[in-house]
Amino acid sequence: MTETSKSTTILCVDDEAVGLSVRKLLFESEGYSVFTAENGSEALALFYSERIDVVVLDYMMPGMNGDVVAEEMKRRRPAVPILMLSAYVDLPGEALRCVDKYITKNEPPPVLLDTVAELLNRRQKGISRVAL
User: Fold this and answer.
1) How far apart are CA 28 and CA 40, in angstroms?
2) Which residue from 5, 43, 89, 106 has the least number of CB within 10 angstroms?
3) Strand order of the sheet with strand 33-37?
4) pLDDT in tens, 6-21
């Protein structure tokens, strides 16, 4: 567990309950505090009401896709990094314009953990965007 993870809060958003549960357990095992949301509306409510340090956001969700959620989050708190996840290998550039990093859901857990750590480190250093 790193010093960063001890006080870091992650918001995980996914309409697939199993994937959401797995990511929650993974991040908690590394010492992160984790909020979960199963749709965009729940995610935005948590984002507005809680201190969130990084968002891990599914792209394809019913009602409101991740790109719409990311746009609203960036409008409210542009410094909070957003990691977009998707089962799709190639998302259109327009879908990624408000996120800081994109990886596919089939990446192994160490890649997910490393990517979140990278986003948090860049935020601490004041670097807002990571090469997609």
Assistant:
1) 22
2) 89
3) 33-37, 9-13, 54-58, 82-86, 101-104
4) 589 999 999 999 999 9
